[in-house]
Amino acid sequence: MNRKLTIGLLLLTVVALVGVPQAAALSSYLNNFNTTYPSAVGTRIDTCILCHQGDPRIGGSTDRNSYGAAFGSNNHNFTTIEPLDSDGDGFTNIQEINARTFPGNASDHPSVTPTPSPTPTVTPTVTPTVTPTVTPTVTPTVTPTVTVTATPTVTVTVTPTVTPTVTPTVTPTVTPTVTPTVTPTVTVTATPTVTVTATPTVTQTVTPTPTPTPQPTANGSISGSKISDDNGNGKQDSGEEGISDVTISLIGIVGTGTDTKVIRKETSTGADGSYMFDNLPSGRYILIEQLKPGYVPTGFVVMSINLANGENSMNNNFMNRPISNLFRIS
Ligand SMILES: [Ca+2]
Ligand SMILES: [Ca+2]
Ligand SMILES: [Ca+2]
């Protein structure tokens, strides 16, 4: 072996001792990234500048960018920093990884505005400790309390509210509206039309006929006798005869108003003692007898007679007793 080959081997050993640890550390994190996100293997973000300012393999800066810094401060756990937006470009780290953009470079981000997903990935560290203790204690206590309290409260409240509201509203509205409307319409229209038209037409045709009072002017008479009342009892008995040739005077007032006039007449009794005045109009008359010597009156000396139209007033007798038998006991 010559001297050049020996020096070459020494250089490779130095490079291996100095440069390899840095490159091995970087590739181990990148291998860890590729293990976590297998679909990203071989894409544009499967490179050192995912976490660093530059690519150290070509002389770039090894300083970590914002994503690499977050990775370092979270115990080198890619899953933990998925919900973070390390470069502040509006997209979470996992969104950028899925879109193959660099989560540590704000100028490189997905072209389409993503739908912001609310913090789903914070849960993984919290979930395993919370879930097992909550679930078993909640389930048994909830089920029995729901079943028991639901049944009694529903049955009790339905029954009392339905019964009282139905009964009072139906009964009062039906009864009053039916009864008053039927009765008055039938009774009123029948009675007045029959009774009114019959009465006035019958009564109006009666016309009184005036009866003219005729004025007959028939004459009447006044007659009588002068009787010899021998026993003086004032009436004519059998055997008592009339007294002849005695004057009977008549004075009458007849007519009315300006036609009033006085009638004066005289006559003498006949052989049987009778007398008569005829052709006398109606009026008020006075009869006066003339006493014959030897006689005294046993009745009226003067008679007053109201003679009606055409009346014949008879038996106007004058009773005279002879003085010769005045003291004889009859
Ligand atoms: Ca971002
Ligand atoms: Ca970015
Ligand atoms: Ca006599």
Report on this structure:
The chain is an alpha+beta fold. The chain has helices at 3-18, 20-36, 66-73, 93-98, 123-203, and strands spanning 220-228, 247-254, 261-268, 274-280, 283-289, 295-297, 302-307, 312-313, 318-322. Strands 1, 4, 6, 8 and 9 form a five-stranded mixed beta sheet that branches. It has a four-stranded antiparallel beta sheet with strand order 3-2-5-7, with no helix packed on it. The longest helix has 81 residues, at 123-203. One calcium ion is lined by residues 85, 87, 89, 91, 96, 103, 109.
Short description:
The chain is α+β, with helices and mostly antiparallel strands and 330 residues long. It has helices spanning 3-18, 20-36, 66-73, 93-98, 123-203; strands at residues 220-228, 247-254, 261-268, 274-280, 283-289, 295-297, 302-307, 312-313, 318-322. A hairpin with a 6-residue loop joins strand 2 (247-254) and strand 3 (261-268).
